[in-house]
DNA sequence: CTACCGATTGACT
DNA sequence: GTCAATCGGTAGA
């Protein structure tokens, strides 16, 4: 863990699909009152500002999705089926796009994750967007949080710039609208990604 | 205020 | 593989 440098704001201020791919392999770091947890991002999904019926901002701005309309580099935390999920907002302010973090590989604070999740199974600790949030103690309090500075929630650049893995693009999981778009990206071969689901080239 | 729905998960066949 | 519990957000009366 050489440099603990946060990914800078310009990293997020780019096309969402590109940011999604580039987030793979980076470290998500969460510091809470009861300790710190960290994990390597292995699965993400992109939600587009235009023509994407699955995006929460598709039908305009509401109280819930307000963070998506804010500047890049902020968190967008929402509730679904009584659970929390976390996104990272991309593209310029007023452009409601974001990357959903679906799974990470546990790197630090594993015991804390186990306690929060109520399971010892390392593979299941952060596999799935809501499981990840439970393991990292992420909830609505972090909605709108700036992730470009080392703080309660941020993303650390990977030790080396060169990716040592292949990226697999598939359709998104669980969405009922615009289900045909291949906007889910995973680290090929990682056992820490959530259920495979159908694949697409 | 009530009614409906979902970017999920965990339990079960 | 299938299925339903779960509750915050949204729309509508």
Account of the 3D structure:
This protein is globular. It has helices spanning about 10, 15-25, 110-115, 120-125, 130-135; strands at about 25-30, 35-45, 75-80, 85-90, 95-110, 155, 165-170, 185. Helix content is about 15%, strand content about 30%. The model is unreliable at about 195-200 (pLDDT under 50). Strands 1, 2, 3, 4, 5, 6, 7 and 8 form an 8-stranded antiparallel beta sheet that branches. The N and C termini lie far apart (about 35 Å). It has about 200 residues and is an alpha+beta fold. The structure holds a DNA duplex (13 and 13 nucleotides).
Keywords:
alpha+beta, 5 helices, 201 residues, 8 strands, eight-stranded antiparallel beta sheet
Q: What oligomeric state best describes the polypeptide chains here?
A: single chain
Give the strand content.
25-35%
Globally, the shape reads globular
Distance between the termini: 34 Å
Q: Low-confidence stretches at least 5 residues in length (pLDDT < 50)?
A: 197-201
Give the secondary structure arrangement, pairings included.
Blueprint: H1 9-12, H2 16-23, E1 27-32, E2 35-47, E3 75-80, E4 83-90, E5 97-108, H3 110-117, H4 122-125, H5 129-135, E6 153-156, E7 167-170, E8 184-187
Antiparallel strand pairs: 1-2, 1-6, 2-5, 2-8, 3-4, 4-5, 7-8
The structure holds a DNA duplex (13 and 13 nucleotides).
């Amino acid at each position: 863990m050489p440099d603990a440098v946060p990914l800078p704001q310009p990293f997020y201020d780019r096309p969402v699909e590109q940011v999604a791919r580039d987030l793979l392999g980076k470290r998500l770091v969460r510091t809470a009152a009861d300790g710190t947890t960290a994990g390597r991002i292995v699965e993400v999904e992109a939600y587009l500002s235009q023509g994407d019926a699955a995006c929460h901002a598709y039908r305009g701005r509401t109280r819930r999705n307000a963070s998506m309309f804010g500047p890049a580099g902020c968190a967008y935390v929402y509730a679904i089926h009584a659970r929390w999920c976390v996104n990272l907002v991309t593209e310029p302010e007023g452009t409601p796009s974001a990357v959903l973090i679906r799974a990470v590989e546990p790197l630090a604070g594993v015991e804390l994750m186990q306690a929060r999740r109520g399971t010892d199974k390392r593979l299941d600790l952060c596999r799935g967007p809501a499981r990840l949030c439970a393991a990292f103690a992420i909830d609505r309090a972090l909605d709108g949080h700036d992730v470009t500075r080392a703080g309660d929630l941020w993303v650390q650049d990977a030790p080396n710039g060169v990716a040592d893995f292949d990226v697999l693009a598939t359709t998104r999981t669980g969405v009922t609208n615009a289900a045909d778009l291949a906007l889910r990206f995973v680290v090929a071969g990682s056992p820490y990604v959530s259920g495979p689901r159908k694949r697409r080239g």
